[in-house]
Design goal:
The complex is a heterodimer of chains A (134) and B (436). Chain A starts with a helix and ends with a strand. Chain A has four helices and five strands; from the N terminus they run H-H-E-E-E-H-E-H-E. Chain A is elongated and about 75 Å long. The relative contact order of chain A is 0.15. Chain A has 134 residues and is an alpha/beta fold. Chain A has a three-stranded parallel β-sheet, sandwiched between helices. Helix content of chain B is 33%, strand content 18%. Classes of the chains: A alpha/beta (134), B alpha/beta (436). At the A-B interface, strand 1, strand 2, helix 3, helix 4 and strand 5 of A face strand 1, helix 1, helix 2, helix 3 and strand 3 of B. Strand 5 of chain A pairs parallel with strand 1 of chain B, so a sheet runs across the interface.
Amino acid sequence: MNRRKLLSLLGMSPALLAGIPTEAQKPPTKAKDATDSGSAKITAVNPKGTPPPIQLIPMAPRLDTLDGKTVYLVDTGFHGSDVLLHQIEAWFSRNMPSVTTVFKRKAGPYAEDDPNLWKEIKAKGNAVIMAVGH
Amino acid sequence: MGIPSAPLVTKAFKDLAILNAAKRGMPHERICFTPHPVWGKTPEEVRAYVEGPDPVSGKPLMKEIIDALTVPLSDDEKKSGIVSVSVGPPTFTDTADNLQDFYLNNGYTDFLPIILPTEERVDAMMKGTSHKPDEVVGKMAAGAYPPWSYNVRQVAASAVMAGCRPEYFPIALAIASTGIASLFSSTNSFAFAMIVNGPIRDKLEFNYGIGALGPFAQPNATIGRCWTLMSKNLGNGGIPGDTYLGSLGNNLNYNNVVIAEHEDASPWVPFHVQRGFKKEENVVSLFRGLGVVPGQVARGSSANENVQFDYQMSDLFSTFTGFFGALIIADPLVAARLKEQGYDTKEKLFDWLYKNTTQTVKDYKSRNYAYLFEYPQALQGREPYATWYKLPDDAVIPHFPRPESFNIVVAGGQTNAYPQAGNLSFGVSVSIDKWM
């Protein structure tokens, strides 16, 4: 820190600062910017980035019934997902025993894709219940 | 997949689930909801969830799930095609006071007053780079969302708003080019940090001396703030309930942890040189993690001439989440002492910390991050997690997965030998010069 800046920290004593102009004592170098206040209208730039367009994806056709179907219960890996899905599995067992349930934990941390599991479900399953967004 | 599915989400994430499904092309996805949380509930409690109502629709949850899989699709649910998304006109015209309110009320700010990005100011900011206004700088998402893109001019608007000078602009562009948002959707309330290296530290008068991490210099203050404003504006981050879910939030998000390295006072090579850059290059390096804590709480005292900073750091790091790394922010006095202890390279220190910061397998398995992120990798055979999960509970293992989990940067005014440390992992180092 140079002397001028150091002295300016002392409270701007004119005696101390005599002959040492400080930035803080300088008058504004230009009139207050008209954009800072007042009733004049100004134009400012929209700061937002550009969102991608949304590609609508048609939802998969629904089943007529779950009776006799195979439902995959996919655990995303969040805490408690397995407990929840096992309770759903038990509910089907008690209330809709014709439904076959298959419990699977998705491979990898929750944000990772698991194409092998999707392939398996497409080949062997009829529906998916995925849990849980914690 | 072509298979009907019923996603099940806890009520706390209703807005996130609906909005993210829409952004990904399914605005009418049949999302079912359970009470929140599921985590920590007994099977009996969760059974009550299953047999109870969906807390959003009020209908029985299992009927909601079965309907989601079996009720025929509506015309809206069958739609395909492309929908454009508007963020409004390219400019806004009003009085300055009204524009301040408008920017604040539309989520463009950090809720502190901004410098209004008038066309003149944005044009002036762009004089800080040789790159063209419409050049695409990158893409950014604040989580698992479709990323937004942005050009030089759009970056300049956030830089103006943050109070940056045009000569700071290449750093803002370098950060923007990484696509890393400093506001992240996770419930963890992440913190972010950057290290600035190279001659630009002196040219722009960064503070890397007394109060290096505090509000004592314009580039430190505004470039950090700019990262957060860019994350909100360019990456659409920081919308509570939508793109931001941090339960407590993080005060460091206001301007992040900006560290200009005190290169001349370091006994080691500067951080960017470690990453393959030349000393004379200007580089910014980004980190993500949970926050920064003081080093004084650890074992030892700076009043002790023989203070052992390696043991201090090890103590401190044993409280950290191993999933993230550890970034030591060392005052030059701390760095000098470490060198006196024999750590003449950073790598020697990292190796010691890796070997001496340990935990039992039982403790490791009990950690939230281990279950969420590392156990799934162990199941896939990824090391070291696969081995760690096979060991007995009383086995002692490293607290961090590898020596490279550690980093150190030197900054501070040498008024005392105090370190701080971040539970922060290194992300990327990028050239600032490229954006001049």
